[in-house]
Structures
1.
Amino acid sequence: MVDFFGLYNYWIVIVLAMAGMYIVIARGNLIKKLVGLNVFQASVFVLYISFGKVSGGTAPILLKGVVTYSNPLPHVLILTAIVVGVATTALGLALVVRIRREYGTIEEDDIHSQDGHT
Amino acid sequence: MREYLILRVITKLLFPFILLFALYVQFHGDFGPGGGFQAGVIFAASFILYSMVFGVRSAQHVLPVGILRAGIAGGLLLYALVGVVDLLLGANYLDYSPMSAEAKVGQHLGIFLVELGVGITVASVMMTMFFTFATWRED
Amino acid sequence: MLREHLPVLVIIIPLIAAPLCILFRGRDQAFGIALLATWGSFACSAVIAAKVMASGTLSYELGGWPPPIGIELRIDALNALILLIVSGIGSVVAPYARNSLLLEYVEDRSYMFYCAFLLCLCGLMGVAVTGDAFNLFVFLEISSLSSYVLIALGFDRRALTASYQYLIMGTIGATFIVISIGLLYQATGTLNMADIAQRLPEHGYDRTVIAAFAFLVIGVALKMALFPLHQWLPNAYSYAPSTVSAFLAATATKVSVYILLRFLFTVFGVQFSFDILPTAVPLTILAILAMFIPSIVACFEHNVKKVLAYSSVAQIGYMVLGIGFVTMTGLTAGILHLFNHALMKGALFLVLGAVFYRIGSCNIDRMAGLARTMPWTMAAFVGGGLSLIGIPMTAGFISKWYLIQAAIEKGWWHIAVLIVASSLIAVIYIWRVIESAYFREPPEDLQNVKEAPLSLLIPAWILVFGNVYFGIETSLPVSMAELAARSLLGAN
Amino acid sequence: MHHQIYIGLAIILPLLGTVMIWMSGSRPNQREVVTVITSGLTFLCVLQLLPEVLAGHQPELHVTELLPGLEISFKVEPLGMLFALIASFLWIITSFYAIGYMRGHHEPNQTRFYMCFAIAISSALAIAFSGNMFTLFIAYEVLTLSTYPLVTHSQTDEARRAGRVYLGILMSTSIGLLMVGIIWTWAAAGTLDFTPGGILKGKIDDGLVIVLLFLYMYGIGKAALMPIHRWLPAAMVAPTPVSALLHAVAVVKAGVFTVLKVIIYIFGADFLTETGASIWLMYVAGATVLLASLVALTKDNLKARLAYSTVSQLAYIVLAGALATSHSLVGGAMHIAMHAFGKITLFFCAGAIMVASHKTEISQMRGLGWRMPFTFAAFLIGALSVIGLPPLGGSWSKWYIALGAADADQLVFIAVLMISSLLNIAYLIPVFARGFFGPREEEEAQMAGSHEDHGDHGDHGDHAGDHDTATHDAHDASDAGKRIAEAPMLCVVPLWITALGCVALFVYSDWLYAMLSPIVK
């Protein structure tokens, strides 16, 4: 039981990932899809930060008298991943804006039906 | 937003401090938490806040599209060229040690310049993104 | 003096050129910069390839930090071959782009196109040189993000939805890859791929590693459009501008296949990937489905670009099939096809770009009788098409020859027959186009079409010539592919 | 050394000719002169190699090596020499004939026609001279591709449909079966060189030989073994010179030539008879001989009838190969030559009739012989040669094949040969007979003029659509009266040359036998 809840952050990761994936798949609204994508990516950020944590360690800044630090590398990695995520989101939103201008809608079904008839 | 006086005053008050904090995060990044990414975003946040309150037009007076675009390119170029300088100095790419007589100073200088490049690019990109979306006209 | 820095030069040349394009905004300046950058990195790649073939794996420590602390650039025969493909296609496409309709469409912002193009090139080359798993992800995303932009430049509004769909699928794939890399890091405490490979057997193949493996294979399969995860590809390639389709079809999926190869064989190791886990079976089954179903769909498409896009999905099947054999010959075949498919698909898409330039459509009915008005263009199409089918004396034949031989070596007769049967489907969809262009009367309004300009024809013909040349003089790709296959199989 | 040059020249000259034809596309006279000169020079080149081969040498030419052990090389041996001689000699004749035919018929796209023709000949020569199976395969594919534009020459929907059948069958069998067979052979034997005695002996399980033989025999679609013969009748939509040279000589003979090559130099005749793997092939070939003859009987269209006759005659050669005795193999090889001259004559006649009178159906040719006596006389000679009556060439090859069947103790195939000869008579002689012994034109005109009379013209009934044209032509004919109205000289002279060739082949067959006998040693 302790093991089960002791790893709660991984459970959060799984829940976030599943929720995000579900939104991406199930929602027809292009913006909501992007939101889902962000939730999904957020789960990965949590995952990385989780395993960067060393139990009992502090923030990885050199201080006198502290021996145990958390691993800084995953933080740096995930910072990069966040930047990638931001870029993806921005690009996705830009596409959505242009799609709305061309189609007048951001609902996937409407877009498909329009393309089907043109 | 012209009628929200409190917002306008607070924004004006906060604006220089945010910028200052951004610069601190930028240049203290090689000793403490911080660095180009974070600083760039904070820097951009100040302008985004400003333009939300005072309008995009007035923000763009200070930072027109051309400057931002040059910032995007220039920051990246700065980063890349630091590496090239290292190459020319005979070291590996992004090995800053030979940039000064003493290896440690060289490392400092190199990381400083690289982070500066990153900061400029990130700030410019964030602002460009905001301005682009904010000024998008349906036509 | 710069010779030992070549591994990094191939990526920083386009990386520096990209912002330069933005700073010098003129159309001609941007074009000049892009041209110099692509040709420069191609020259570097060629020298690297020669060095690798002569003296083995090259290693470069970025920032002077030795691995596994620093990022290592590591180039063996496989990487060198991928570098050659990517930079070679880039060098052909860059001058082609100047006169294509694309630049007229984006008008005064053509420098933006070149910037995105160079970043995409930089990302793809970066994937091919880096020896660091996370760095690989970053470069992959650089290339993916810029390719979303490039695809969205298409003339049709469907390019936007195609790009969006690609963005969603591609990001999910990339995120899966990050998860996998994270789990691997958790298991081994290192990000250097060679180092991971060394430490994994000591660590043991526990659930973390298996999960990492699963995430990686699915993520890469999404990125390389392995059937049935290919839905993004046909639309993306058919609505993107032809220049972009040519570039991406010839390079992007190839780089993803490289990632699959690198992780399955080097990082996880042959023993884990294929002995402990039964990866070969699903890969082979999916590959065979990929060889057939998209090909059959292609036979019923009217947009020739879409035909080629579906055919690309089918060709990925061949490469994965080669991988699934897990033999020397099979891997050689897969890697060879990587190279040869880049040549043929690049050529065909460039030809379609020239067609589109003159008649504004790639519809098979609009292309009727085109051989009369655009003989050189359609002759190039025939050249590329024959290679795609796998007619002897073309590059496509060589890879199929190896593939069938690999199947026979394993005693998998049925698969050899299936390979052949699927190339017959290729005959059908290519022949539909040729028949329309050569043996039908052109539509009324297209009687007086002019031949495409030389600036479009020459790049297309260079690639067609490449198809023939590498179909006859096979020593370069074959020796590189064999060397790569040997090092992949011997790495465990 | 200089013999290598002739091998290369023989293959390259037609290609150079192609370029020249293309460049002189807008000047018909120049174009045709180029064609004729090229064909003449090519024949001379081939002829230069003949003394070497007769002296027992086998000149070789190595071009390039694609993969280790997989090279493009040429080697001239007697079988290939024979095929090359036939193809290049008949090309000259066909060139003249084609000029007469194409002009007489006012065909469009003549430049493309001559270009593709030259490429086809080049690849046929490459097939003849190829030194290994791989080279042969490449040339085989080029031949398929280069003849496709000739089949669809008229660009009508019908031609395109026929072209699809043509290309579909030939490509799918060659890539789908032949290529697999070749790769298998390579994997098993490590070489693809044509070696006397075969390369497969001991390299492959006896049980699998049948499978491999199946891959080869059905992979070589050009041999038109039933049931993959459909492409050959389909190809008859092409202009007649194409049907004559390519679909009676070059393409189909390339098919059976490949069959013989594979049996002699890949499997090895002894190996086949030891394992008994070719027995099924004998029966398939025998069945094809008879069935195709029967189908030919039902065809009213002259070219279609000749096409099915070709299918049947090709199966003779495959049968000869399957018997794999020394007599049958030589007989099969001789039949390549005999049938080539006989059938090209028949096709030339069909084309001449079409040019002179626009008639394609046999039922319309009643009494036509009086107007075209030379053509019909030549037709008789060709027909008798195909049937196999002395003093015409066809008799010798049938004789040797029958001898081979006796050697192999497969007497049933002697019966097959005899029945098929009877069937040949049944479907070829009526064409001639109708030309001379039917009612004269005036009567025909009267009969055709009254529509209700068509029913009793035998096989005329199932061509309802032909009535109008028949009527129309008949009126033309009655206008022309009884005058002799032959096809252009350029059509008639070539067909007499080939008809005389049938006679010459009878007389000089011992020479042919001497040249071919080394292949079974």
2.
Amino acid sequence: MSKAVEVRPMTFYPEVLARIAPDLSMQRHLSLGLRPSLRASEEFRNVEISDGKLSCASKETVNRSGNNILGSNVLKCGKTMIVTSITGGVVEENVPVEQDDEEPALENSDADRASQFGCIYPVVEVECGRAGAPTDEEMTLSQRIYNCFLHSGLLSKEALKVSVGVKSTNADGQASIQYPDEKDSTDLAKSFKPRRKWTYVLYAKIQVFSRDGPLFELCWNSLIYALQTTQLPRAFVDERTTDLKIPVSMRGRSAAIRETFDILCDPVKFQPLKLNAENISFASNFAVIELDPEAQLPKDDDDMQVDSPTSVLLADIQGEAEEASVSSIVSVVTGTAGNMKHFKAIGGDSKITLDMIKKSIKLAKLRSSDLEGKS
Amino acid sequence: MLFAQTGVLELVDGSCKLQCGETTVMCSVTGPIEPKARQELPAQLALEIVVRPCRGVPSTREKLLEDQVRGVVTPVLARYLYPRQLAQLCFQILESGEPEELYSSKELSACINAAFLALVDAGIGIQASFASVCLSILEDGQRLLVNPSQAELIESRSTHVLALQLAAGAKKVENLLLLESYGDFDEQTLLQVLQTGEEACVKTALELRKVIEQKLQKDFVWR
Amino acid sequence: MSTMILPGDEFHLESRENVLLGPGAYCDPRNQKVQPVTAGFEVVTETKKNVSVHVEHNSKRYIPAVGDLVVGLITGSFSDSYRVSLSNFSTPVTLSYMAFPNASKKNRPSLKVGDLVYARVCKADKELEAEVECVDSSTGKDAGFGLLEGGTIAEVSLAFCRELTFNGDYPLLSLLAKNAQFEVAIGINGKVWFKCDDIRHTMACYRSITECEHRTQSEHKSIISKHFKTLLNSVP
Amino acid sequence: MAKEIEISTSEAKFLIEALRQGLRSDSRKFEETRDVGIKFGKDYGDVTVTMGKTKVHCRISCNIAQPYEDRPFEGLFFISTETSPMAGPQFENGNNTGEDEVLCSRIIEKAVRRSGALDVEGLCIVAGSKCWAVRADVHFLNCDGGFIDVSCIAVMCGLLHFRKPDVTISGEQVTIHPVEEREPVPLGVLHVPICVTFSFFNPEDAEENIKGESNNEICLLDATLKEELLRDGTLTVTLNKNREVVQVSKAGGLPMDALTLMDCCHKAFKITETLTDQINEELKLDAESRNKYAALLSSENARVS
């Protein structure tokens, strides 16, 4: 009845095909032995870093006033740029069970591992031109970085304790600040034992520009670099701090509210943040994808029929085609000496075999030593 | 070790209450129902997962748990059976059984097992059985514990959550669904975790299977 | 009952050629393997030509399938069709104005929002909206379809409804009939509509059906007599 | 609530007609409430309350916080009643602006927090700087009507059952003793408010009642979900054991005769009494089961030489 409609095969440019049918474009590339990001299957992207001279404690004297960034890092990996800035605060610890300073904290003996380590509060922002509430991805990234950092044991609680200095103004009104652990400090400073304890709190703001694939590994590496440049300001309390007792009476109840003077940060003196160097670790991600027989390009019959492997391990996923068509992901955070901090494997639709896991751990170690060399 | 019962709620299609060690989780499944416009997927079943903590308001910690459960459940669901439909999975943690600010592995493992029972209770198509187990390695690095108690968990060097897809009457391991490890461990420990975890998962799957047998007895009581 | 089966187990199917898939069985497009997707009891029926396999399982959420007789609730009316809900929160189905006996462009059916209809599912593929019809397409007559006036609905599980419909000698309905005359329309979507002339009878039937679903067959007789006794002789 | 439970007109007519003849679908009388099940969990302050099929879980927790500047002598007390799709698909996750959810959390807020059921001044540790922040999280597990009544009972049971760690203050030093070291301390609960919800049905059609001759509305107690969807008016009265009215909420709906308000309160008081006794009974049972060994070791029993 209607004349035969001849159907011409539609052809698309590679990037357009990557967006319309990511898994088809992926399989086509794999059948040629390539991958959409045109890197070898186990080749990582190059990473360049700099501390971006953002932090107020960086070597060049960045103008001090108003710059409260303690450590920073700018990481460029492929198309993606990540800017991490570390800020901090001082918080009074309401010590649950009272301890004198000398005898070590009895209550949390070394057994209770996780609560010995300090943590950092990361906030990840993926800049995609849309302001508004954090998306699910940003929230899961921040929480995953928080969990991984806490359990990696990179930062012990001792490193965050504030050793309080004292500011004394001698006769001619000229003020000087001494710190107990400094060599030239007077005995007054050494004898100054504050009853209240303060700790530093660290926040990390991780901004991602031009997102181009899984982000957890890049954010983690950038955070580690930033922490290595972090300097904590010294803090002191004025000698004449008198806890002002303000009598307050309210509805027949009267009590003296203790108005306490807060601790001040020394704008000049900084001390580097002590990290447990052996726990420094870097992240890398891998994906397992199975070759779909039907989607292979028609092989020209002259090349010999090599039995192509059924599934391929790709390192460092990049680009929309790869990220959309892959569902089995392996993410490894490891130090150079093979001491792993975090390992995540999601089964997805293809099979993750044991030797895939071994191979990815081996590659992750190589990547980690390469990244460590950079800092 | 694991106590569970299905069909505990009325208005939802499938539900279960599961207690594993000191962690108690209640899971409810509703679906396939009509999705909201923004949730609809053209060819497959959309998943809405909600995790609510036992204390306080849901935060990013629960958002990460939702993402992990989604990663486990999505490949197992027969998604293409219900195009443009929605399934709602709700988890209410009744007892966390671990210090919430530091750990979430026991809750994750309990949520995965509860999800399996609730999905089966609701009759939504799943392609294979799956089970999950939480492991931890003690401070001295040798002893590996399956489903550790709160005290053991605190003293452990590393904590692992393993979820496996099982076939042939929960005897044969088909595929690794999730392996999430935090803490200090090396490759050799990880392989040992995988090995011991496999046996523990098979044992858990058999326990889940018994719970389902009770459910089937209850379902056809009127016959 | 035949053997219990869970997702992930194997069907006991020796011959591989044309297997008819019933509910609960799914053929994975990638590896063409037939596998169970719900937990229940495996039922394999061999006939000369082919093998049919399905999993007998019980659930609450109804998924439309062609040929099912269902009780629907009219939730909206449009220019050419009604919107009918088969179960709460599920995607609504359409009942076109033409799907009535001796329907024509002019005389539109007289159903309002909130009415109950007894209908048959005529189109139900998963991607599109399902369609129901209130006319027996072969004979053109209403064959019991159409508006269900008054009475009430008991919501029960799907397997229980199938049992009431297809298993003729299931005692429940006959036991009820001894105590009250009633009109009944059983929807495979888990909704049993029934109407007696007196409110107390209807209430007694409602309570008996909802309770019998959770009790063994032996107790049905005592449950029904208990309900009818409490309701009928407690004259206000 | 975006999605609704739809009810057919014939079902509605049937229920109303049954009510007119004094029948309810679960064979209860009008003034009869469903039996209340209270089950305490392992930890202090963990309670699951069921009323018929409606099931609610409440969890009480506490931590150290800074009191508000304008109230330096008082601790903090929060109640969160968030519904999730687990209670029923008609509840949307995270969006609590539905009319019923707002009404429920407002009434619980007025009944428990505003009425001073919990002695917040007892929560103060160091005036102006440290105090206890008590938090009650109500999780709705299954919804078959009566959410307000069940969550009020759940919060009160939780508060009565909860124990917070013991604290000693020496001058500026605040020591919080872990539970293993010192027996935890109960909260100061001043009175036990119990909410009772009445549902009103107008058997005749609307116009006739506006003229007011026949005001024989039907008044039900503790409505199930179906009855809640079909009711024309609702009244929630909160009383405590010493016969004081804590709060009354009549949010629109069918206007009712003023005198019925009084006998609703009387009916509610009877229920409050039985429920308060049941709560105390359950608490005693739980206390005994918790330290059944204490009875053996307690100093009162005779010294065995």
